[in-house]
Each structure stands twice: as structure tokens, then as C-alpha cells.
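Hi again,

Forgot to attach this to my earlier email, sorry! This is the prediction with tryptophanyl-5'AMP bound. I've pasted everything inline since the attachment limit keeps bouncing my files.
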Amino acid sequence: MPRVLSGIQPTADSFHLGNYLGAVRQWVALQETYDAFYCVVDLHAITVPQDPRLLTERTRIAAAQLLAAGLDPDKCTLFVQSHVPEHTELAWVLGCMTGFGEASRMTQFKDKSGKVGTETSVGLFTYPVLQAADILLYLADQVPVGEDQRQHLELSRTLAQRFNHRFGETFVVPQPYILKEVAKIYDLQDPSAKMSKSSSSPQGIIDVLDTPDVIRRKISRAVTDTGSEVRADEAEKPGVTNLLRIYSALSGDPVEAIEARYAGAGYGAFKKDLAEQLVATFAPIRERTNAILADPPALDRILARGAGRAGKVAAETMTAVRNRIGLLPATPSLSRTAVADPP
Ligand code: TYM
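C-alpha cells for the complex follow:
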């Protein structure tokens, strides 16, 4: 079975519509036909300051939302990145093969470091190397993500090829799995900007866990363009085009069919129906998330099982990597615990 891997940061109390359409929905579909590994990337989250208590809570919320959205722990491996220490070990090895200039070209680093200013950490700079480690550890063939991750995936591919070239075939060179229609969902208040947890205003974002009333209000206030025609036109009508793409993704109807349905009806009826599509998709996810969060030990068991499965694959890959690059193998019979000094 070919393999997929993807990750999502636990940096907010809820995922947003961009995360859902750009990534999570594909994760759910791909678990049917791929050996799928999905992780909540808590170590990526700490590249900018996080409140420790909130980070713990949001990691559970993230995992619960993924299950509520349809990930099935019997069909995929869902785990928390920090539960598999090989991610950071491989990141170090790959970091030693990444050019400083190469890392400096990552546009997301430039954007984010611009926002964080003097607090910018070395971790934020090497973030894409850790992401490459996430992917390469599992020898993933495909990586389902939104458009904003394309450059990071390109780096993962480069590093896989470089390692294979220097040390012999070890890694699979991963392919991005990006669905054009939903690759970039835009801010509802500023349709020239990506919907983003860190830069959009609360009104510009629909959260998966928003209540139905909040969803309705945000859609009714979404920026539309001059005129009243429900028509896709990226240059002239970016706001309506974004809403049409969202409607199409949720309903499965082609954009042209939706345009035809609302011909002459104006924005009001269209927005009202779009809001109901969103409510119908997100209300059940919200309810299931709350039910899953009501039983933290059960959730933690699912994550432990996931970490066990992921850890097995990761350990195998790391052993191969250590051998390839010439690290002296530790002697199992002389393991740290077996020969530990008496207390
Ligand atoms: P993150 O947590 O920012 O976002 C999770 C996923 O959501 C997608 N996404 C969007 N898609 C469409 N429109 C939008 N407005 C939108 N906003 C976000 C992202 O592209 C992503 O797929 N670096 C990654 C996490 C990561 C990862 C990995 C991904 C860490 N290791 C390994 C894949 C493989 C990130 O910060 O995603």
C-alpha cells in the first residue's frame, strides 16, 4: 500500500475552514486507500511561544477534531509528533545537510519572522527541516497539504534526493498532494489574503468548532464584491469566487451549476444557503469533538496506540539512517539501562 503522511499544528482552539478543506478532508479520504500517518505537530507549534497548559489542551482538541472529522484509528495512524522522538533526531541529521541559504529562502519563515520580530527563534528558521523529517521518516509517497506548504515539500524532496545521492537509496522522494480547487481558501474579510489563524481577523475565519449562529453571522458579513451577480471571476470578484469555491467543495456541485442556480437571485440567497452547507458539515464535527474530549483517557489511548505504530516505522528508518551516515551502533547488550551505574 502506498503511504501518506501529513501534520497539523495545535496552535488554536479550533481548526479553520482552510485547514479543513485544504487538508483534513483529504486525510479522511486517503485513509481508505493509503497506509496513512497523521500527526499533531506540537514540536512545530513551539517554534513560536506557547502557553504550556494551553498547548497540552490544544493538542488533545486537535486530535479530537481529527477523529470527529472522520479519521478512524483502525484505518490510519494518528499520533502526536513529540511522542516519537525520532522526528527530532532525523531533523538534526537533515539540518546538517541543509544549506543556510537554502533555509533562508523559505517564504513562510520570512513572513512569520517578520511578525515575531526580534523574538524569532532558531527553531522557526529550521522548522521546514523538522517537517522534512516528519515526512521522510515514514517514507511517505504523498503528502496532502494546502498550497502554502508547497515550498516546504520541495525542500523535503531535495533533502531526500541529496541524502540518497550521498549515502545510498534510503528515502522515498515524496509528492505533494494538493487539490487545486481548495488549495488556498481566502479570508472572508480580505479575499486577497489566505485564511490564516495567525493573521486573519476572527470575522475573516470560519472555525470548525464555531456554533451555527456564529457561522451564519460570519457568512452573512463576508465581503462580497460590487454588483450582485453570483459569478466566479478571480480578478473582478475575489470575494464571491472564494465563497463559490467553498460552496462547491462542500456540496460537490460544480461552480458553474451553482452560478446557474443563483442567477438573478443576488448574494443574499446564495450566502444563506452557503451558511447552511457549513452548518450541516461542522455541527456534527463539533458535537463529536465535544463527546471525544469528554473522555480524555480514551483519547490518550488512541494516541498511544498511534505513537506505538508510528514509532515502529520511525525506529526502522532511523536505524538505517544512522548506519548509512556512519554513526557507531550502540551495542544492544550494553544498552544504557543494562550497564547503568548502580544508584
Ligand atoms: P498548518 O497547521 O498551518 O495547516 C494545516 C494544513 O492546513 C492547510 N491550510 C490551508 N489550506 C487551504 N487554505 C488555507 N487558507 C489553509 N490554511 C492552512 C495547510 O496547507 C496544511 O496542510 N507546516 C505544516 C504542518 C506540518 C506538516 C508536516 C504538513 C508539519 N509537518 C509534514 C505535512 C507534512 C503547517 O504548519 O500546517
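The chain has a mean pLDDT of 95. The longest strand covers residues 3-8.

That should be everything now.

G.
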